[in-house]
Hints:
By secondary structure, the chain is mainly α. The protein is built from 13 helices and no strands. The N and C termini lie far apart (about 65 Å).
Amino acid sequence: MSSQTTTKAKQSAFKPAKARGSANSWTVGRTIGQIVLVISALTIFIPVVWVFFASFKDKSEFYGSPWTLPKGLHWQNFVDAFVDANLGQYFGTSVFVTALALVLSLIIALPCAYVMARFDFPGKKILKIAIQGGLFINVNYIVVPIFLMLVDADKLLYEIFPDGFFVNNPVMLAIVYAATSLPFTVFLLQDFFASIPKDFEEAALIDGASQFTIMTRIFFPMAMPAISMSMLFNFLSYWNDYIISMTLMTGDNRTIQVGLLNLMQTQKAATNYGRLYAGMVIVMVPVLIFYAIVQKKLLQTSTMGGLK
């Protein structure tokens, strides 16, 4: 009896010590993770805030300490960047191209992903492998073949469009953006559609809903988190692109990224850094606004559409 009592006492004393050790290690790991996240956030937040304040500085203020706050709000930097540096025109081109590319990619990717996820048909495996293979193709590596194809197409239509139709056309640039982002968009939405239980689909079929109604009224609302995520990634890809837009667009139809590079080269030579940082802020603001709009959808649960 005494040996059994001693053994139980040792076991009861060992378990709380082991639990305390696990709790302490979990607390230490969580603290380290929070410190790493804070440092990572500061490395992003501090440069953004610095660029924002620098955009309001006068030209003479850049000769002092770079960490001083602006003496006033020098809005003329934004006016000069938007008007004199033609960033306003480039900005409008980028907004049009990005919006059109997002619409085209969703119009094509949503039905394709739904069919790939919910139906079986001949050649599905081959098509699925082709879509997955497209994820590993960097569009920057094929921009030259795309450009040559568009140039050859313009040669065929030279008598109808002597100034060209495919090259230096914002609509064609949006189509190229949408086409090159389809593998990622379809792959992301397909996995999300495949994870939705069949109970929603069967219940809608019993109520007499068509496949089109099921797709648009049930699956699309339920897939809003995945749709929002794909829109966010595609928006960043379209808006921040430089190589494709520089290759396919020339003259006044340049996008904001190409225009910003030209502004950087010009203002560095003129040492007018206030106008340069104002151009950077103009480029960053749409990204922040779009993320603020989309981030609420990213947190929605996948069953919201089914409950509706």
